[in-house]
Write a structure and sequence with these properties.
Radius of gyration: 16 Å
Number of helices: 6
Structural class: alpha+beta
Helix content: 40-55%
Order of helices and strands: EEEEHHHHHH
Largest sheet: 4 strands, mixed
């Protein structure tokens, strides 16, 4: 496996909240279909079929699991919290109005994240950030319908 050593940040600039140096063994191997990666609480295992962007996004996701003390399968609510935190870390300055592309996949590719990470970031942005970023103007993202329904229910 590969060993990544870091002091406060890993290669993609995502903050690691542990003091000092964090060393994580990352192994590439064939995982069961539907699984991009997992952690056993010590090491990270990534599917060897992932492309560079998928690898980066999955690695950050698994680093969040490690940081939060997880190992193995997590309940759906925990997994969603990890996905949203991953999206916040990969797209900290998310501004939907600045996204370029004609499809969600194209916008994600231009931001160097997966489609799922982009969707999770849109869904996890606060209403204020989403509005400021133009999220309510972008007709590409299905989350606009969810946001509109959420706002209608609150008003």
């Amino acid at each position: 496996g590969q060993t990544y050593g870091c002091r406060n940040q890993h290669h993609w600039g995502v903050e690691v909240r542990h003091a000092g140096v964090v060393v994580v063994q990352v192994f590439r191997k064939r995982l069961a279909d539907g699984y991009a990666g997992y952690t056993d609480g010590v090491d990270i295992f990534l599917d060897d079929r992932l492309d560079a962007v998928q690898t980066a996004c999955t690695l950050v996701h698994e680093l969040v699991h490690l940081e939060w003390g997880h190992k193995g399968h997590q309940p759906e609510a925990v997994e969603m919290a990890v996905r949203y935190e991953t999206a916040r870390r990969l797209l900290p300055d998310y501004r939907a109005g600045e996204c370029r592309g004609t499809t969600i996949s194209e916008v994600a590719a231009n931001l160097f994240v997966t489609r799922q990470v982009l969707m999770d970031r849109a869904a996890s942005a606060s209403d204020a950030l989403a509005s400021l970023g133009g999220c309510f103007e972008c007709q590409l993202c299905p989350s606009i319908k969810i946001r509109a329904q959420h706002l209608a229910l609150r008003n």
